[in-house]
Design a protein that fits this description.
Oligomer: single chain
Number of domains: 2
Number of strands: 14
CATH architecture of the largest domain: 3-Layer(aba) Sandwich
Number of helices: 11
Helix content: 25-40%
Distance between the termini: 37 Å
Largest sheet: 6 strands, mixed
Structural class: alpha/beta
Shape: globular
Strand order of the largest sheet: 6-9-10-3-11-12
Low-confidence stretches: none
């Protein structure tokens, strides 16, 4: 189980004696992307500012741990040095301080040492190129005369240069046109790719998320994250499906559904099978095996690949049969990486589902998600619009 980067436990926060957050629990691991959505006034930005250490927000209960260390006694600048970054909805203008000098000073403060001018200049220009920023922006006073899009690009430029362990992006895509959102998304993607950095994205929109992989989505309403009593609502991926499993799931337990019924799950099963099976299979010729390789081989008639798809379909079909007894769905949509398998997987899942489920639930239809990994995100947005 990977070490927790950020742990927010039973956090309650007030602003000017008015309670805003109520018992917030949140855990973020290195490399994960969490999205926080909710109506205006729900407390989303309050959580971001509280994690960053803004003195305006009074913590009345709970704790915040970052890399295992308690944060509540640290000032905002100490938290920034520890590796937390917060982008602002409305970045302030700072006359007399150039963007270049501001970033260089921030980088040196974070690292605790001087940085060679040539090294800094080269790295800054590379980051500006990612964001399609002219190098002359570096000479302009910080945010002075910048358009909304330019200010947001300057924020992401700081993100790329500071290389924090955790980046909190507060409405970074607000007020931007489509092209600007695409450029900002590219910068965030670059941060994810090169730093294994964790993200907490606060947003009302899904536009900035189209180019990003999202691990978890949280909905905040009236200062509370709506996700079951202890934040585990809907986690069917951790239903126990195999008591004899020896490998450990990311949650710390063994035999969870997601160890089988996911793109990484079928690859894991394939590697274990190939290590002990002498049968001929095209999968042995693939150096970096992916779920797509397995599904393509199964479609081509590869016996080993077909066996793996059958196992995945059986485990998932049986698990969904149990879930159906609780929620009695009209349609079951298969998303995520395994949805790329197409009908070959749907047919197997449905076969085992019908064999196992309660008779009144057998008529449920099966379909593949057409919105990719963001399908759940769009559903969350619709829920908010319907409130």
């Amino acid at each position: 189980m990977s070490e927790q980067l950020l742990q927010v436990r039973n956090l309650s926060v007030s602003v000017e004696d008015k309670p805003i957050l109520h018992g917030i629990d949140l855990e973020v691991r290195p490399g994960e992307t969490h999205v926080l959505m909710g109506p205006n006034g729900a407390g989303k930005s309050t959580l971001g500012y509280t994690i960053m250490g803004s003195p305006r927000y009074e913590v009345t209960g709970g704790e915040i741990l970052f890399k295992g260390k308690e944060l509540l006694e640290e000032t905002a600048d100490q938290r920034a040095k520890d590796g937390i970054f917060l982008s602002f909805q409305n970045p302030l203008e700072v006359p007399g301080v150039s963007l270049r000098n501001f970033i260089r000073n921030a980088v040196e403060q974070r690292s605790g040492s001087r940085i060679k001018l040539w090294t800094f200049k080269k790295e800054l220009e590379q980051a500006m190129e990612v964001l399609q920023m002219d190098p002359s922006y570096g000479d302009r006073d910080l945010n002075v005369g910048f358009s909304g899009g330019e200010k947001k690009k300057a924020e992401i430029l700081q993100l790329l240069m500071l290389k924090p362990s955790l980046a909190i992006l507060d409405e970074t895509d607000s007020g931007l046109d489509v092209d600007a959102v695409r450029t900002v998304s590219k910068g965030v993607e670059e941060y994810q790719k090169n730093q294994n950095g964790a993200l907490l994205i606060i947003t009302h929109s899904t536009r900035i998320l189209d180019a990003l992989h999202v691990d978890y989505t949280h909905i905040m309403v009236d200062g509370k994250i709506v996700a079951g009593a202890n934040g585990a609502g809907g986690e069917i991926g951790h239903i126990m499906v195999n008591e004899e499993e020896t490998d450990t799931c990311g949650c710390g337990k063994k035999g969870c559904l997601e160890q089988y019924a996911s793109a990484t799950g079928i690859v894991r099963m394939a590697k274990k099978l190939l290590a002990s099976d002498d049968r001929e299979t095209t999968l042995k010729n693939v150096s970096e095996l992916t779920a797509k390789d397995i599904f393509d081989a199964a479609k081509a008639g590869d016996a080993v690949a077909k066996e793996l798809v059958e196992k995945l379909g059986k485990v998932l079909g049986n698990a969904l049969a149990n879930v159906a007894c609780v929620v009695n769905p009209e349609i079951i949509v298969i998303g995520g990486g395994v949805s790329k398998a197409g009908s070959i997987l749907i047919d197997v899942i449905q076969k085992h589902y019908v064999e196992t489920t309660f008779h009144a639930c057998r008529k449920a239809e099966f379909a593949l998600a057409t919105l990719g990994n963001q399908a759940g995100m769009y559903g969350c947005v619709q829920m908010l619009l319907d409130m």
